[in-house]
Specification:
It contains six helices and no strands. By secondary structure, the protein is mainly α.
């Protein structure tokens, strides 16, 4: 969850972690509890990552990158689509015939989003933002991920200041639910 480094290094490490979980899902022969555990694991990582980006990365993109408002809005729309898919998966039984197509849809959406950020958004921000600011944002993103929700909440606000106010409380409730159910402990 917390990898260290500036914001771009932190978020790219998250991207690689999610890709690794997807590879483990694709390599599975069956489903059952092992699949549920991996879906929960990738959900937790994606939700935390998205919340942190929405709280700190995208406001920086708006401030430092030319055309940043449109770029940030597009990324937030990507997150919204992913969060809706995660909500679908959360409600599905691993034996459901739709589980595989919905998982594939998630992997496709996330892969496109990651590729866009890694190849376009992050280099733009690296060119226009000081290394001190990128380091500061890395620290903020790590703190946000530690407090972030662990379950999809598609109707929650995705822009400051509302997301910064509500996410820690929602995150506390999610982590309490996870503790009681054992979710995310695999």
């Amino acid at each position: 969850m917390g990898h260290g480094g500036n914001v771009l290094e932190e978020l790219m490490a998250d991207h690689r972690e999610v890709e690794e979980i997807f590879a483990r899902i694709q390599a599975m022969a069956g489903g059952g509890q092992e699949l549920r555990d991996l879906v929960d694991e990738v959900t937790i990582e994606l939700v935390r990552h998205s919340v942190a980006e929405e709280q700190y990365l995208y406001p920086a993109v708006r401030e430092y990158v030319e055309g940043g408002d449109q770029l940030a809005d597009k990324e937030i729309e990507d997150h919204s689509r992913v969060e809706k898919i995660l909500k679908q998966l959360e409600k599905m039984d691993t034996g459901d015939a739709q589980m595989s197509p919905v998982l594939q849809q998630l992997m496709n959406e996330v892969a496109a989003h990651v590729q866009d950020e890694d190849n376009n958004l992050f280099p733009m921000l690296r060119r226009t933002c000081s290394s001190e600011k990128l380091d500061e944002l890395g620290d903020k993103v790590r703190r946000a991920k530690a407090m972030a929700p662990t379950r999809p909440h598609p109707s929650a606000p995705s822009t400051p200041p509302a997301n910064k106010l509500l996410a820690p409380g929602v995150g506390l409730v999610d982590r309490a639910r996870d503790f009681v159910t054992g979710r995310g402990k695999s």
